[in-house]
Write a structure and sequence with these properties.
The protein has 97 residues and is of the alpha+beta class. It has one domain. The chain contains 1 helix and 4 strands; from the N terminus they run E-E-E-E-H. It has a 4-stranded antiparallel beta sheet, with no helix packed on it. The protein is elongated, with a radius of gyration of 17 Å. It starts with a strand and ends in a 5-residue tail after the last helix. The mean pLDDT is 94.
């Protein structure tokens, strides 16, 4: 039995660009026949023909700590990259909004 906690599926490109760029995030709680609960978490990012999938599933407390560490580190890097990207684009393309 699974309980879906979070599910997002989004295209990354604007209209008129290749439709193969997307992100798919799926997070659910799984319960086996004994009642044991685990977390099944997958994050897939695709850009044209390149696809990367991250398995952030947690089957015990150690897995949970490591998966949460990975998710937080990824968030920090993406946020920092976005800030640097915005600054760089503004420098190269001053009229960009």
């Amino acid at each position: 039995m699974a309980t879906r906690r979070f599910y997002r599926r989004r295209f990354l490109n604007r209209r008129g660009y290749h439709a193969g760029a997307y992100v798919l995030a799926d997070l659910q709680i799984l319960k086996d026949t004994s009642g044991e609960r685990t977390v099944d978490a997958d994050l897939t990012i695709a850009d044209c023909s390149r696809v990367t999938s991250l398995d952030l599933s947690a089957y015990n407390v150690g897995d949970a700590r490591n998966a949460l560490h990975k998710a937080r580190l990824l968030r920090a890097i993406v946020n920092d990259f976005t800030d640097a990207f915005e600054e760089t684009l503004a420098e190269v393309y001053p009229k960009l909004k």
